[in-house]
Write a structure and sequence with these properties.
Blueprint (H helix, E strand, L loop, with lengths): L17 E6 L5 H12 L1 E5 L26 E2 L12 H17 L3 E5 L3 H8 L9 H14 L1 H11 L1 H6 L5 H14 L17 E6 L2 H18 L1 H9 L15 H8 L5 H23 L5 E5 L7 H13 L4
Parallel strand pairs: 1-4, 1-5, 2-3, 2-4, 5-6
């Protein structure tokens, strides 16, 4: 493989300037993105909203610096846990990263499982206005009445938006209802369409749940052994509980309940695995309808990464295998 810093035009190998690696959690996106960056000459742009947070490392499976193989990674560790992630901010800053990477003659490899962030980055997507007072009132209702009430309200006024937003996703439910109240228009009318603002090749990693589910269970066990409880304890002292976004992340929400004595260790691990499996299915449902995604078989184990990487390179460059 060539080195990531090679002096070459991003178009010289037939691949576009931007390559996105999408799919469910635990399908091997990080491994394939590293292989693409090494083979084609590129830098990685993170599009996993939970990996924006400093200190949220174990529970998000964030690659440590030593495992990044010297390849620059962008949009990691940009927020403290008490801050809210912003799709608009990410769109602006990540597009600037892509412009800088391609100006250096390299490929921008966008990777992560947060579908809305991928679409906001790559597609034409303008952001409706905000109103702090309206948002605060809806957030307070979500905390007191629960997200289910907000989801039922949204289903009445904008069924399309409600169908695309999970009933436990308080942040997005609040945003949808905020936009409807401010603009008087359905939130779904402003969602991104399948129309590129930043042209890209999108490569989806697909893995049968018979393989993926046990892999998720094993990953949760590994995270626990690596010190997830200690990580969450430290983050709680830095404002994790005050963060609207970070405190609801899978792995962190459940571990906070464990620290509060609501769940024992076994219950916590089982719940994290259950919620991660559910997240994986939602991620697949988000990306699967996009006709622009070229799906390849995800690596079934470490020995299969080279095959999957070769498949990804073939898709990106249009070369036959």
């Amino acid at each position: 493989m060539s080195t990531p810093g090679r002096d070459a035009s991003a178009a010289a190998d037939g691949a576009p300037g931007v390559i996105a690696v999408v799919g469910s959690t635990a399908t091997g996106k990080s491994a394939i993105s590293l292989a693409l960056a090494e083979e084609l000459g590129g830098e990685i742009v993170n599009a996993d909203s939970m990996q924006f947070y400093r200190g949220m490392d174990i529970g998000t499976a964030k690659l440590c610096v030593a495992d990044r193989r010297g390849i620059p990674h962008h949009q990691l560790d940009t927020l403290d846990v008490h801050e809210d992630a912003s799709v608009a901010r990410f769109q602006r800053e990540a597009r600037a990263d892509i412009a800088a990477i391609t100006a250096r003659g390299l490929h921008a490899i966008v990777v992560g499982g947060s579908g809305l962030y991928h679409r906001a980055l790559l597609d034409r997507f303008e952001f409706p206005p905000t109103d702090p007072a309206v948002r605060a009132a809806l957030e307070a209702r979500g905390d007191v009445e629960g997200p289910g009430v907000l989801h039922r309200e949204l289903a009445v006024v904008d069924p399309e938006a409600a169908a695309s937003i999970g009933p436990a996703n308080t942040k997005r439910l609040v945003r949808a209802l905020e936009v409807i109240e401010i603009t008087g228009k359905p939130f779904s009318s402003g969602l991104p369409r399948h129309e590129y603002e930043v042209p890209a090749v999108q490569i989806g990693l697909e893995l049968d749940h018979a393989i993926l589910d046990p892999r998720i269970d094993a990953r949760v066990d590994e995270m626990w052994e690596q010190g997830l409880v200690d990580e969450v304890t430290a983050l709680a002292s830095r404002g994790l509980r005050e963060g609207t976004t970070a405190r609801r992340a899978v792995g962190y929400a459940e571990t906070l309940r464990h620290l509060d004595g609501e769940l024992d260790a076994a219950q916590t691990r089982a719940l994290i695995a259950q919620h991660t499996r559910r997240l994986a299915r939602k991620q697949r449902q988000w990306f699967k309808p996009d006709p622009r995604v070229a799906w390849i078989a995800a690596p079934v184990d470490a020995g299969d990464i080279a095959r999957a990487a070769a498949d990804a390179v073939a898709v990106a460059t249009g070369r036959p295998r």
